Amino acid sequence: MLNTISLKSILQSSLIMMKSKKRLIKVSSNTDKELKNSHIAFRDEKWYTVGLLLVTVTAFCTRFYAINYPDEVVFDEVHFGKFASYYLERTYFFDLHPPFAKLLIAFAGFLAGYNGEFKFTTIGESYVKNEVPYMVYRSLSAVQGSLTVPIVYLCLKESGYTVLTCVFGACIILFDGAHVAETRLILLDATLIFFVSLSIYSYIKFTKQRLEPFSQNWWKWLFFTGVFLSCVISTKYVGVFTYLTIGCGVLFDLWSLLDYKKGYSLGYVGKHFAARFFLLILVPFLIYLNWFYIHFAILSKSGPGDNFMSSEFQETLGDSPLAAFAKEVHFNDVITMKHKETGAMLHSHLANYPLRYEDGRVSSQGQQVTAYSGEDPNNNWQVISPEGLAGVVTQGDVIRLRHVGTDGYLLTHDVASPFYPTNEEFTVVGEEKATQRWNETLFRIDPYDKKKNRPLKSKASFFKLIHVPTVVAMWTHNDQLLPDWGFNQQEVNGNKKLADESNLWVVDNIIDIAEDDPRKHYVPKEVKKLPFLTKWLELQRLMFVQNNKLSSDHPFASDPISWPFSLSGVSFWTNSESRKQIYFIGNIPGWWMEVAALGSFLGLVFADQFTRRRNCLVLTNSARSRLYYNLGFFFIGWCCHYLPFFLMSRQKFLHHYLPAHLIAAIFTAGFLEFVFTDNRTSEFKDQKTSREPNSNSSKPKETLILWLTFSSFVALLLSIIVWSFFFFAPLTYGNTGLSAEEVQQRQWLDMKLQFAK
Amino acid sequence: MSKTSLQEVPENTTELNISKGELRPFIVTSPSPQLSKSRSVTSTKEKLILASLFIFAIVIRLHNISRPDSVVFDEVHFGGFARKYILGTFFMDVHPPLAKLLFAGVGSLGGYDGDFEFKKIGDEFPENVPYVLMRYLPSVMGVGTCIMLYLTLRASGCQPVVCALTTALLIIENANVTISRFILLDSPMLFFIASTVYSFKKFQVQEPFSFQWYKTLIATGVSLGLAASSKWVGFFTVAWIGLLTIWDLWFIIGDLTVSAKKIVGHFITRAIAFLVVPTLLYLIFFAIHLEVLTKEGDGGAFMSSAFRSTLEGNAVPKQSLANVGLGSLVTIRHLNTRGGYLHSHNHLYEGGSGQQQVTLYPHIDSNNQWIVQDYNATEEPTEFVPLKDGIKIRLNHKLTSRRLHSHNLRPPVTEQDWQNEVSAYGHEGFSGDANDDFVVEIAKDLSTTEEAKQNVRAIQTVFRLRHAMTGCYLFSHEVKLPKWAYEQQEVTCATQGIKPLSYWYVETNENPFLDKEVDEMVSYPVPTFFQKVAELHARMWKINKGLTDHHVYESTPDSWPFLLRGISYWSKNHSQVYFMGNAVTWWTVTASIALFSVFLVFSILRWQRGFGFSVDPTVFNFNVQMLHYILGWLLHYLPSFLMARQLFLHHYLPSLYFGILALGHVFEIIHSYVFKNKQVVSYSIFVLFFAIALSFFQRYSPLIYAGQWTKGQCKESKILKWDFDCNSFPTHTSQYEIWASPVETSTPKEGTQSESTVGEPDVEKLGETV
């Protein structure tokens, strides 16, 4: 219900927008006089506010629409949700990205009062069942994603573009499937993109203060540029490219200050340089370090990231709460085994399977093996090494399990289980039989994290128990309990689908550890200290080393050359029952418009340079300064965020293009207005326009925009973008199932969608 | 070689012709006719200098060329390739063919019949191998490079005395001498690069659209083509010419005395000369390459079956039945690696399930044969049933009667979560289980005919095999299994593997219901010349990228300008060939480039602060030429940093050549500007510099000519980490006579060949799977 209402509101707001535009077009298509008035309207502060409100509200609608769906782990939420949980549990982990955005997510979880119990292990796990405040997490992303849109709007406004241009630029981001999908899930990119846009915005603000250097506003915006830049680079290292962009601007700036025609002394230029160096490099670096300081301060307990670090580093981490209870399992220990999903214990008792089941199938009539949730001495099993070893059981070992109560051995064989004709029956056989059927009593401990040769620890090490000769995993379920002959306990059988998450077991308890056994008493680890900078340097070095190792094949990795065209995307999440899926892909018409604009810009610059070399001055000076300084800056920004990817050898994904896409959106809108502005010098004007009196002197920009064509063209482009957004919305939000035909209709370019058949 | 006796030739006319335009001044680009003349060798005196330099170069480069009389360093490869050209057997190499063809040509002129195999470094040449003649080729080209350097510097505005000095420095540059004495590609390539630079510099001073202009333009294009056809490094030279052409055109466009029509002419003629001509030449040499290598050889394993089917004596099946059906006896090939056929043999995996191995095997073998069966193999088919898209089948290995099988265990080498082991499983009488079932999914966009998109047809249909139980796809990648599986290529079942590695096709096909006489047959389509060239390049590119193993004497690009380390080329009988440069020249080049860069940044900053550039024509020409040559140095040097393959010091030689050209202009500015009025000073600097360089050359020459040296001299000469082995030299040279006397030769030689002297990796070996 909620979904449909918010969808309607989006529709309505976009309709209003279309209408308002239509009205503008109507206005502009009237007489010359009115035409002039409409220009003024387009630059009226009032209209700017209306436009801003409009895009902001719509942005919130698109980002928050159906944010609760799916209520399952989607794509890389696996990573970033998990990291938030580690922060909340304060257990040490290792990741390639700097901590800022992850801390933000964790902070959201902290505010929601979450304890971080859920570890986001696989895509598709339910949030509702695990009571995760995923709405809070996702809202954090969505708020940042939504706010990016008005920032883009303001960037254009501050660059001196008309309301129409600002709205158009904002709408390219607003109605973009890639931006929407990426900024409403628990991912880092919403934060990244938000701060990229803020950096650009504050830098534009800063350059507008250039006539009043060292004024209060000048310092303010320089400071903000630095702060936001540091947030970008503290989120992901692609922030280096944002630095590069701003760096190009700053260098150009300093270069023109150095120009002798300006008449500044070297000392004065030095002051400019020092201010920028201090606020754009030094202060951001300190902020960057600060996040690491918080990172280390929070993660004070040992955790999954320990093994990456040096032993000196590991000694600074306290034991995790688990460590107090986790004990190494030795051979010949008597243990209880708990099924992870249902919480029941592996159990057996002196009762046999009935000869015949209700459906007529026959059993082996062996002793029952069940799973039972209550405490019971019959839950006790002894771990025995087939080779007669003693000492620590390591993960990956082959073991036999002796049922203590009935003195028999756990065995499974090619006999169908009570409920599942496809699964193998588990039973317990006596000593003599167990020796005869030796092989069938062998089970391998298959560790969940695939890291073999580590000691098996109670409570901590999850594993699958794989039957060695027939390769099935011990499994139980509680959706259907055994009938009276099985005392309504859970059926245990051998599952052929080894990959199922529900095959996981853990050693729950080690019974009766002797008093003199060192395992009996828990001795907390002594925590040492290391200077912060030493810890930071170690981690920083490690992050770079690991980053360079990320060069293996990934099915959804793509080549940068395909990005601007949005040729193929990434499947984030699928649900085959309802034929729903989330597919990460840009708004294809929108992306292609950007490519067209970027290409045309290059052509225009080339043509301008070429004609000027030949003494033909076609463009006015003000147009040229707009073309090179304003649009040129955005173009360089796009290049800086895109081209370096060609030199990288690590895995690359489409979402790496989003910052570049954002800057290209600002560029595209600005460029469109530029194209529809009459920028010609008087020499090159055609007769009709040049007869106008004030064509070249006063207010050149405002009088020279070709309003009618410009606004209708923008309306046309916008409607294509909006249409395409709604057309692909089922793939963006994933809340509508599609028939095979509908899926095929949306399979543009190189996209490979699920359920196309 | 006395330089002081020289008198100055006519003054250079490098004066800039600046015209006042309507809006801004511009440079008139058309050079004055005298300029070209003043920059050519015309006077008898200068011809004499050139002749004496020529003789000097011959002496240095050809001295003792027959020594060592055994295979040195990469002669292993390039001698070997010459042999294969002569025998006509197909081989694979990462370099384009021109230089190798030249060696083959010279070899066959000298009567080399391809008996000698150039197997390993240190193999002695038998009598009938014209290795001396073959070594003459790079040596003579090395001499040519020196002469080119002289002429190039003259063309870019240096005084004869400066040209002579710089040329003399190149003649005694140890690295250039060493590399041009052996059957290696670098010397021909350097010669072609040098002639490109020369013709381009000549071209720049010609009056546009004159006969000389066209002549030098075409010469530049031809030399470019030859350079690129010798080694891919030549493409960096293409980039250099390209950038300089854009630079030139920029000024031509700005020159308002040039008409628009002429500008178009400038564009088109350059495009033809610098792009079309080199491309044509490059293709022609590949055509010759393919024309000569007609027989199947050890390079065949790299190529697709379609390519191989064009080679004489190929083992590719000629024809097979088109339609594949149930009961067909097939061989299945992996499309996108050269691993070969889906293969199994009666050996078990060590580890994993311990079941029978399934691999890829490149050679034809009866263990490659599989019988296609219905997944529900209860009844034998009674008629021909085609393999439709989506059919569920089992593949029964004919010789062992085990079925292709997969299950949730990690493969032997690739222990990734998304990879499953593939084995052959089952025994007589066992009807198989669901893990044997595979679903055929035809890749419609890759299958060539309409029919092949519906049903599986041999050769024409490309398909994937999806494991019915787990949904993974039969997959293979260039990962070798351990020794117990004979290092064949790993086959796995991957859920997330990239698509191209899960494509397969049927090569041979027999079916009990079809008759080879009656039913339709198919064979590989014959690839066109361009398809062949494209495939060759795809392989060359991939192999080049894959040359990442570490080599004892490899070095990183950042060490090259400082000459931190050399390469041991050959070591035998107490003498060595150790590749290293003349440190005097080498370091001066690096220092000049660094100093000029600092100077450049400084002058640009000064310019921004209102101090103009010097308008002195000598200084102006110095700046322009330095920029050109340093750009060349950068373009040949910087790409090395992006390359992941193993790199050697000799990869710096093209850069060094540009560096030496820049060094020439540094000498020129010293001579004609700094000490213009006191040229005694510059002359004495030059003499002193040459003397130091010569003494360095002389001191290290035993390492070039495999000459006699003593342990003491050797140890004294180790300035940096130059790792030539001093222990192989005797304490006194008289020891050589004792070793040489017949009595002593009967005693076992000690340390005949240093273990570490190995050449670049053998490309052929990389491709061998078995």
TrEMBL record, chain A:
Compartment(s): Endoplasmic reticulum membrane
Q: Does the keyword Cell wall biogenesis/degradation apply?
A: no
Catalytic activity, reaction form: a di-trans,poly-cis-dolichyl beta-D-mannosyl phosphate + L-seryl-[protein] = 3-O-(alpha-D-mannosyl)-L-seryl-[protein] + a di-trans,poly-cis-dolichyl phosphate + H(+); a di-trans,poly-cis-dolichyl beta-D-mannosyl phosphate + L-threonyl-[protein] = 3-O-(alpha-D-mannosyl)-L-threonyl-[protein] + a di-trans,poly-cis-dolichyl phosphate + H(+)
What name has this protein been given in UniProt? Dolichyl-phosphate-mannose--protein mannosyltransferase
The free-text function statement in the UniProt record for this protein reads: Transfers mannose from Dol-P-mannose to Ser or Thr residues on proteins.
The principal localisation class reads endoplasmic reticulum
Q: Which InterPro entries match?
A: ArnT-like_N, MIR_dom_sf, MIR_motif, PMT-like, PMT_4TMC
The membrane-spanning stretches of this chain are 96-114, 135-154, 160-178, 185-204, 224-252, 273-294, 588-607, 627-645, 657-676, 704-729
**EC category name:** transferase
Please tell me one Gene Ontology term that the record gives under cellular component.
endoplasmic reticulum membrane
Query: What kind of membrane protein is this, topologically?
Result: Multi-pass membrane protein
What PANTHER family would the database entry show?
DOLICHYL-PHOSPHATE-MANNOSE--PROTEIN MANNOSYLTRANSFERASE, PROTEIN O-MANNOSYL-TRANSFERASE 1
Q: In what pathway does it function?
A: Protein modification; protein glycosylation
Superkingdom of source? Eukaryota
Its keywords, alphabetically, are: Endoplasmic reticulum, Glycosyltransferase, Membrane, Repeat, Transferase, Transmembrane, Transmembrane helix
Would the keyword Cell division be found if you checked this record's keyword annotation? Answer: no
> Which GO molecular function terms does the record list?
dolichyl-phosphate-mannose-protein mannosyltransferase activity
* Domain MIR stretches: 326-386, 390-448
EC numbers: 2.4.1.109
Automatic annotation (TrEMBL), chain B:
Q: Would I find Transferase among this entry's keywords?
A: yes
Q: Where is the composition biased (Polar residues)?
A: 744-757
UniProt keywords, alphabetically: Endoplasmic reticulum, Glycoprotein, Glycosyltransferase, Membrane, Repeat, Transferase, Transmembrane, Transmembrane helix
Q: Membrane topology per the record? A: Multi-pass membrane protein
A single cellular component GO annotation: endoplasmic reticulum membrane
* Pfam families named among the record's database cross-references: MIR, PMT, PMT_4TMC
Keyword Signal set for record: no
Which residue ranges run through the membrane?
Answer: 48-66, 133-151, 158-176, 221-247, 267-288, 584-606, 626-644, 656-674, 680-697
Compartments in which it is found: Endoplasmic reticulum membrane
SUPFAM superfamilies per record? MIR domain
- Which GO molecular function terms does the record list? dolichyl-phosphate-mannose-protein mannosyltransferase activity
Q: Which SMART domains match?
A: MIR
Recorded hits in InterPro entries, A to Z, give: ArnT-like_N, MIR_dom_sf, MIR_motif, PMT-like, PMT_4TMC
UniProt-listed Enzyme Commission number(s): 2.4.1.109
Q: Which family does it belong to?
A: Belongs to the glycosyltransferase 39 family.
Listed name of the protein: Dolichyl-phosphate-mannose--protein mannosyltransferase
Organism, per UniProt?
Komagataella pastoris
The taxonomy runs:
Eukaryota, Fungi, Dikarya, Ascomycota, Saccharomycotina
